[in-house]
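Quick illustration for those who missed Monday's session on complexes.
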Amino acid sequence: MKLIKLTRDYKCEWKSLIGEFEKNNEKLTPLSMKGNANTFEDFLIESNNNSKGINLKDGIVPSDVYFLVDDNSKYLIGAIDIRHYLNKYLLQYGGNIGYGIRASERKKGYATQMLALALEKCKEIGISRVLITCFKSNIASANTIIKNGGILENEVIEDENIKQRYWIQL
Ligand SMILES: CC(C)(COP(=O)(O)OP(=O)(O)OC[C@H]1O[C@@H](n2cnc3c(N)ncnc32)[C@H](O)[C@@H]1OP(=O)(O)O)[C@@H](O)C(=O)NCCC(=O)NCCS
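Prediction with coenzyme A bound:
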C-alpha cells in the first residue's frame, strides 16, 4: 500500500471515490478530498495551493491530501489530510490529521495502514508530535488512532458531542 498525490490521469478514480461517499449520503472525510472544487482540474489546483500555503482562507493552515492505493492499482481506497501545524481551532478540535475510507473498503485494516503511512509523511515535514481527534462515538476511528500509538489526552465538547484528543509521539 502507498500514499499518492493525484495527477491529471486520476480523474475517473477521484470521481468514483467522491461518488461513493455521496451515494451513501456521507460527509466527505477528509473534506479536502474535494475541497471547494467543483471539477477535478480545480481540485488539483486547490490541493497544490493548500500544500504550498497559497491563497489560504483565514484560519486555514497549509496541508497535504494523500490518497491510499494498492501498489499496483489506481483504485483510490481512501484519503488522508495532513495539516502542517496546529492553530487554535486545530489544537482544540481538529488535530493534525483527518481521514476516511470508502464505505465498500472499510473493516479491512486500511485506515490503520493509511494512518501509519501518513505518520511517516509527518516525520518528513518535521512534525514530532501529532494530534488526532475523533468523536467518542466513532469507535473505528478511535481504534485506528490507538493502534498507531495514540494516547488519549482528554475529551472536549464540540457541537454537543464528545470529542477525544489523542497524541502520537513520532
Ligand atoms: C473510521 C474509518 C476511517 C475506519 O476505517 P477502516 O478502514 O474501516 O478501519 P480499520 O479497518 O483500519 O479498523 C480499525 C479498527 O477499528 C475497528 N473497527 C472498524 N470498523 C468498526 C466499527 N464499525 N465498529 C467498531 N470497530 C470498528 C476495527 O476492527 C479495527 O480494530 P481492531 O483491529 O482492534 O479490530 C472509516 O470507518 C471511515 O472512513 N469512516 C467515515 C469517516 C470517519 O469517520 N473518519 C474519521 C474521522 S475522525
